[in-house]
Amino acid sequence: MNIKKDIVVRVRIMFLMMLLFALAIVGRIVILQTIDGDKWRKKASLSYVKERTVDAVRGNIYADDGSLLATSLPKYRLGFDPLVTMRNPLNVKIYDEGIDSLCMMLSNFYQDKSAKEYFYQIDFARRARVNYIMINNKLIDYQAVKDMRKWPIFRFGKFKGGVVFEKVTKRYNPFGSMASRAIGYKKDHEQVGLENSFDKELAGKAGKGIFEKIAGGSWRPIEGGEASIPVPGVDVYTTLNVNIQDVAETSLRNALKRYNAEKGCVIVMEVATGEIKAMANLTNVNDTNYVENYNHAVLSRTDPGSVFKLASMVAIMEEANIANDEWVNTGNGSMMIGSKKLEDSGPHGYGTITAQQVFEHSSNVGIAKLMLKYFGEKKQQAYYDYLHKFHLDQPLEFQIKPDVRPIINRPKSGDPTALPWNSIGYGTGLTPLQMLTFYNAIANNGKWIQPIIVKHTQIADKLETDYKLTQKVYEEPICSETTLEKVKQMLIGVVERGTASNIKNPLYKIAGKTGTSQKLINGKYQPGRYYTSFIGFFPAEAPKYSIAVMIDNPRGMQREALFAAEASAPVFKEVADKIYACDIQMHKSLGASHYDPRYFATTKLVAHTSDLKAITDEFEIEVNPEHEGWALVKKNDEYLDYKVYKNPKNKIPDTRGMSLRDALFILENKGLKVSYRGIGKVVSQSITPGSSVNSHKSIMLTLR
């Protein structure tokens, strides 16, 4: 019986203990979920492990000569593991002896907190036993990392000093903002340009890795965790030329500032290949600052104005085979079409002029009368069929997305105004690139070629995609050879005698057309606010480059509105001049007489006979100096005359006519200290020839 009671008591005690234990667990759960819930949830959020995506190294973007336009550079953030400095007495000693100096160096480097604030940040995390903190989110380069690894505490590395350099990649454009809208970028949710259109190719294939979440919401990789290796992105090779792009941007920016314009763009295309060599886009964000924040060349669809008259003239010639000297009566420069009045820009009209002059002077009335004569009544459809043949109503499918479809508003039944207004560039909507592509076809002997800005992609030496193979090229010309010759003469005439005569160039001929159209704002055309453009190609006889320039709402010194001839055409010339100057293949050969050494000889030239002999031998001239040493060369009508050059001892020689190299040789051998200014040959010297060398120590030479 006693044994039975003893067992019962023990069972009851055990049951009571289990009940108390269970109640304790329940109570603890309640406390964790209510009283301490926020605390532990926060702690849990600070550290847990999961699989995360590891971005691949993004591909580079190159210019046509291999120059880097965009690349990914490794950058680092500075992290710290405070617990490392507490794991053994040696680490504690490292921390105690170096923390003050470290905080001072952090403050001096980042200059965002005091040394005391950095101490509190690190020491608080250490006492709170947080296993990782981000000391500073500012990105630093590898050179800074190398320097920091020599700092107190950090010099002992990750396992003793607790330093962690978290690697990230940062997109970098070596040429700064050059072609920034065409090259593009990825910022937050905004993706534009080539970085967006070729994102899949550039991005590569991401890998996966095991990461631990740490304080501040950051993640760090766990060493030894299983991971899949990222596949790097491919490199994109563009057609952009760094030098031409720089010229286009500089010329455009200067013009926009000069005319206080709202925005503008310049596109340079290689005629035979359709390759875009430059694409500059600038928008006014305040009174003096212009930035690339929108791709006007590809996306700005608007009434092109008079540059569209080229398409109308080509259509007229194809339909009626008119001659350039066909007479057109423009009257006083005004005519009524239905209820609308069409006027020329000239105050009194041009009277009766040829079709060539209609185009050169950009007569709206002249073009409209030709259109009504050859496409009036029931022939309107034929005109729009020509525009389709010219590919002006079709999207370009350009490599920079999105692709904007052009707008050609065909006439409604019974509307007499649409056709003539369309023919002069109103009631349509085209981008500068779409219009340039049409002009480029005229320059390319009628062959329409799709513009491209990317030639190919590759990784290392392996070609991935050749976009030249997919480029659309229509072998069938958009018009006849006869029409091509006629309209080319018209385009040349615009610059030689017409609305763009201010950009006529004596070195090479430009063919092009001005365009000035009223701006359409909220469905209404605004007088005094103009969209100006100039599109053309050069050299006109053998076109190599076609260029489109657009300047929106330019203003003159007195705040009056400017037309295309004043605003856009000079930008074309400036860009073309600089391209021409750098492209020796476009230069005309000098006459044979210019290669005669007598042509280059100045009235006085002093040189060593060995140099003169080398020159005469090279040009196979049977004239040699009769002596050795220095010689005075003079040009006569039929020959070069050589005389002995006198260089008396202890006397200042006459160095005029010498190269700097020869003058330095002679003067320094006499013990003189020589200084100079200018370039070329010596034209004057500070000491009179024949003076005593002993009384002078230095001499100044002027070169020109």
* Average predicted local confidence, pLDDT: 85
**CATH homology-level superfamily of the largest domain:** DD-peptidase/beta-lactamase superfamily
Please write the CATH class name of the largest domain.
Answer: Alpha Beta
CATH architecture of the largest domain: 3-Layer(aba) Sandwich
What's the total number of strands?
32
Note the total helix count: 22
Oligomer: single chain
Give the helix proportion (percent range).
25-40%
Here the CATH topology of the largest domain equals Beta-lactamase
Largest sheet: 7 strands, mixed
Q: What value does the Rg take, in angstroms?
A: 39 Å
**Number of individual domains:** 4
**Shape verdict:** flat
Range of strand content: 15-25%
Query: What is the terminal separation in angstroms?
Result: 133 Å
Q: Would you tell me the structural class of the helices and strands? A: alpha+beta
